User: What shape does this take?
Amino acid sequence: MSTQATPENSLDPIAAYKAILRDVLDRRPSGMRQRLAEALGKNRSFITQIANPAYQTPIPAQHVHAIIQVCHFSAQERDKFLNAYHRAHPRRLLLLKERERSRRLTLMLPDFGSEQKNHKLDSLLSQFAENVARLIEDS
Assistant: This one.
């Protein structure tokens, strides 16, 4: 029986959703934390903080959907994570709901012959699209 913080046995709502993220990351291939850091435009230590239930640093709402997408959460993992996140941050629910109203656009991009370079371009374009959408929403 594990004594690590889990959503079921944790009294701290932030630790609850961080434990879910940590568990998802632990089940993904190596390099996922680095890919997530690049996708969020952060360094790897930021990922360590947001995935560690011992740290009280909350996950910023604007990163939640990117985390779910980049880490390839299953439907069950996504629902469990979002429910825990909403319990911890009920006022951020509206911001997250607005972000859920999105659509997918597929682009044909050059293949640089390197997974790292391809991922970097994908991340840059995703961030660019999010920033442009945010500017349009704010105007």
User: Anything to note?
Assistant: Confidence is low (pLDDT under 50) at residues 5-9. The longest helix spans residues 115-138. The CA atoms of residues 34 and 41 lie 10 Å apart.
